[in-house]
Amino acid sequence: MMDTGRVDTREYELRATVRDIYEELLEWDRQYSTKTLQGLQCQYEPVPTLPKGKRKVSDTQKGSGSEVFSMETFDKQANTQLVADKMKMDVKFAPVPRYESCTPVSRNIVVGDDSDHMPFSPYSDDPKFAFEPYHEEHKYFEWQKRHLDPDLEMLAIETISRLHLSPEELDDIEIDGLKPQPGITRVSQRRDYPEMPQGWSGALPYNPPHVEAAPSEILRNITRYFCNNPNCLTGYCDSHSDELPDIPLSLPTVASDALNNAATDPCGEDCFLLDFSTRPINDPWDATDIELLQLLFETSPDAMPCDLSVICRKPCYQVLKRRKDYLISLDSARSDRPTKRPLPPRFNDHDPTRYTPNIPCGHDGPCNAMSDCPCWNNDAHCTLSCRCDKKCLRQRKGCTCSATRKGRKCSSTRCSCFEAHLECDPRICIGCCARDSHDPTSCRNVYIQQGLWKATEVSPTDWGLGLFLLEDADEGDMIMEYTGELIFEPTTRSRDHVVSHRGRGYLFQLNSTMSIDSSYVGNASRYINHNKNANCRANIRLVNGEHRIGVFATKPLKKGTEVLFDYGPSFFQTKGAEPQKPQKPEDQEIQEIKKKRLKRNPRGYEVDAHGVTLSHRSLDEKDVPMQMEKEGPVTEAVVDGWRTEGEGVLLVSSIASSVVSQSHARQSEG
Ligand SMILES: C[S@@+](CC[C@H](N)C(=O)[O-])C[C@H]1O[C@@H](n2cnc3c(N)ncnc32)[C@H](O)[C@@H]1O
C-alpha cells in the first residue's frame, strides 16, 4: 500500500511538472509567433498605373523596348499595369548548359544506399521525366519521415532538469507524448545535446567542447565525432571505429626559409616577408597561445605563417620564429631516438576479427533493415564478421579478395601494405616506408596520390564537356583519380532513372554490387569521354580495403590532348544504343514541343475547357490564348500539361495579357 502511494505521488508530481512546462512552452510559443508575424508585416502601397504616353524607357535600354505587364488581383477584381524594360542579354551572361552541381572531393565517399526517403522529386517541373518508376524506388517523401518533435524533446529535457531524473528514468516513464516511439532514439541514447540538463547522470559518449578548455582538448573532442576511416562520413560511426589507426601526425615538408617562395604580398606590417630577423619576440605568449600554435604545426605543418597568425592572433613574423624553434625541437627529438627502429606494427587487414567489427548479425536471412545489423544501421558495408547471407547486397567483396589480388606491389619488406598485399596509402597506412622520408611518393607501393596527378582543364567537346591535358604525359603516367560516391546496386538502379532522363551518366561500375558515381560528388575526371581508341585506361585497385580508380595514359600524350578511355561494352548497352552525335538537348526539346503543338493546332495554341495551354519555354504571339481576350478572370490554366491554380495562373495570365495588349497595340498602330 505504502509503495503504491509513493509511486502515485511521484507520478502525480511528474504529470504536474510536465503540464506546467507544457503550458509555459505554449505561452512562449504564442508570444514568439505573434512577434515574428508582426515583424513580417509591411505597409501595403498600391503600384500606380502609368497613363499611356508617360511610359518611359531608360536610356541604357533604348532600342531594347519595353513591355507592359498586367497584374490582376482576383479577389479584389483590381488590375494594375506595370512597365518593365526589356533587356538585351549580353552573350557573356547567356545561361550555362544545364549541369547539376557536383561537390568536389579528393577521396571517394562511402554512401552505400540513398535513403528510402526522397528529399525531393527531381525534374518536378519537367513533364517528360518518368517520375512514377523513380518514386517507386523510394518508400516515402522526406517530410513523411518521423522525427522526434523538438517541442517534446525540450519538454523531456526540462522535466529531467526540474525533477532531477536520470534520462533512463524518463525513458521508462509512460507519459503521453513523452513515451518513446519506435524508430526514434530514446532520450538516454542521444549524445548530441549542446548542454546537458542538470541531473543528467547517464554516461555521455560525447563531451561538448568548452571554450575554456585547452585547444588540444577541444580538437580531441571535435575529432571524436568523426570516423577514423577518412572515407566514412558517418558521425559517431560504430562500424569503423577500431578499424584504422589514428591518422598519423603530418610532418613539415617545407623549410621555413623556403616559405616566402609560396607567398606574394605581405599580409600586413608584421608579415614575415618583411625582414624582422633582428626583432625579438617580446609580445606575451601564454601557455594556451603556445599550445594552439603547436597544435596547428602538428596538424597543418606547411601552413603559411600569414594564415596561422590570423588563427593565433599573433604577429606573423613571431609565428615564423616559433616555427623555426619547432623544427629545431623536432630535429633534436629525432636525434635522441635510438638508432635501431622498433618494428612497425603489423597491419592486420588479413585478420577479419581486427579489421572489422566482430559483431555477428545474429539473423538467418539476408541483411536488411529489420535485422538490426550494425552495418545496415550505419549505412556501411557488410563486413566479413557480419556473417550475412551471401546474397546481401552490401557485402564488401574486397574483404575476401584483397589477399589474392595482384596489384603493383611494394617490394620493401618494411612496408606493412606489402605484407597485407594491399596498395599503400601513406596517409592511413601504419608503418608505411614513406612516412619517415616525408615524401609520400617515395613508397614504391604508392598507387593513387594527388601529388602525381597531371594538370588538366575541362572544355566543350562533341559530347558535351571533356577533359584535356595541360601538360605532356608519358605512357603509364597517372592522369588523375576517378572519385565519387561509392554506392550499392539498389541505389545505382534508382539513380539510373535520372541518368536516362538527363542523357549523361557518371557511373563507374566496380563489380556487380558496387559502383562509383560522380554525378553529385567528384572531380574533373567525371568529364572524361568514351572512345574505342582510347589514350588512357582506368585501373581499379583496393587501397586499404577501399576501391579506388586511377586513370593512366596508355601512350605518350601531348599537352592539349583530350583524355579518353573506353567505357567498356556495358556502359551504352544499359542506357540504350551508343548515341549518335547529339543535338543540343534544349533545342531538340523545344523543336519537339513546337512540332507537336503545330500538329494539334495550326495556330500554335490550345484552349481547353479549363483555361489555356501555354509554353513557358517559347512564349510568343502564337501562344496567346483566346480566353484572354474574353471577359472574366482565368481560374485555372494548363502549362505544358500541368494544371495550375492560384498564383501560377496569375503569372501565366499576366504574361499572356501582356502579349495580348502588345499585339493589340501593334494591330492598332498598323
Ligand atoms: C562520364 S560522362 C562524360 C562527360 C560528359 N561529356 C559531360 O559533358 O558531362 C559520360 C557521358 O558523356 C557522353 N559521352 C561520352 N563519350 C561519348 C561518346 N563517345 N559517344 C556518345 N556519348 C558520349 C554520354 O552522354 C555519357 O553518358
Automatic annotation (TrEMBL):
GO CC terms: ESC/E(Z) complex
Query: In the record, what terms sit under GO molecular function?
Result: chromatin binding; histone H3K27 methyltransferase activity
An example Pfam family from this entry, by short name, is SET
Asked whether the keyword Metal-binding is assigned, the reply is: no
What residue stretches are annotated with the CXC domain?
A: 340-449
Signal peptide stretch = none
Q: What is this protein called?
A: SET domain-containing protein
From which organism does this entry originate?
Coprinopsis marcescibilis (Agaric fungus)
State the taxonomy lineage: Eukaryota, Fungi, Dikarya, Basidiomycota, Agaricomycotina
